[in-house]
Design goal:
Blueprint (H helix, E strand, L loop, with lengths): L5 H15 L9 H4 L8 E10 L5 E10 L5 E10 L9 H19 L7 E5 L11 H9 L3 E5 L12 H8 L7 E5 L5 E6 L9 E7 L3 H10 L7 H17 L5 E2 L1
Parallel strand pairs: 1-4, 4-5
Antiparallel strand pairs: 1-2, 1-9, 2-3, 5-8, 6-7, 7-8
Helix pairs in contact: 3-4
């Protein structure tokens, strides 16, 4: 973790606040409210993988899968050099530029394969200032986005308490969920048991142009295992790219 000058932090906060004004939390597409998500054909997933010990160079990955089959339609693996350090609450400034570039590259070259929704390995509204990486990417790309985190971000009064653990134990089957309610009473996301075989939940929140209910139902529909398939495939393929091009190195997501 790198400490940023205070003026840089304030600049990022200001930019987040400006972009947040463009955030749309509700459903905007017909497929989002259609039975069985009729009309949804392409779901995207993005992720970054690193060589252990190198937090600057990464493999930026975009995949597009068919829905509901979850078959690969498109993939893009690119080595990128990240210019911004990791600062909690500002992950988007580090990761979004290369992920946005991958989506724009696809739109230029094969616009018919552009995803109708993008799953992001990270949080959306469930964030310190209610504008995480999934919101940032969604607003800049102009696409519906869903944030899916594998670990709980302890933020706005949501903590890994005994009550939280009890709520997790009460999730009996795939599709069961409970709200992540901030101290203010605002629901920022949901903890979702994504499959019958996975007892550890994932944390789903709105990125852009989708409602929380739709985001949770769609996430569950895209899960074969614990993590939704678009993100799982992006993670697997970015790691495989690094293993192929840097065979002696260990990788991390």
């Amino acid at each position: 973790m790198t400490a940023l000058p205070e003026d840089s932090v304030e600049k990022w906060k200001s930019e987040q606040a400006s972009l947040k004004q463009k955030l749309v939390e509700g459903d905007t597409e017909e497929w989002q409210t259609a039975p069985g998500f009729k009309g949804l054909e392409r779901v995207g997933g993005v992720d970054l993988s690193f060589i252990k010990g190198d937090d600057v160079n990464a493999c930026s990955q975009l995949v597009v899968l068919s829905f509901p089959e979850m078959e690969l339609m498109y993939e893009d693996s690119q080595m990128v050099t990240l210019s911004a350090p990791y600062v909690p609450g500002f992950l988007a400034f580090r990761e979004v530029p290369c992920l946005l570039e991958a989506l724009q590259r696809l739109e230029r070259t094969q616009p018919n394969l552009l995803p109708q929704v993008v799953f992001v390995d990270g949080n959306g509204l469930f964030h310190y200032r209610e504008f995480g990486v999934a919101c940032h990417l969604g607003v800049l790309a102009g696409l519906p986005c869903v944030g899916v985190a594998k670990n709980l971000l302890q933020v706005q009064g949501v903590i890994r308490s005994e009550e939280h653990q009890s709520q997790i134990r009460a999730l009996k089957k795939g599709g069961d969920s409970f709200p992540l309610k901030a101290a203010s009473g605002r629901v920022l996301g949901e903890a979702l048991r994504s499959s019958d075989s996975s007892t550890k939940p994932i944390y789903v929140s709105v990125g852009h142009r989708i409602s929380l209910d739709t985001a949770v139902r769609l996430t569950h529909a895209c899960c074969r295992f614990r993590v939704p398939e678009p993100i799982r495939q992006a993670d697997m393929r970015s790691r495989e790219y690094l293993r192929t091009h840097f065979p002696s190195a260990d990788t991390c997501g």
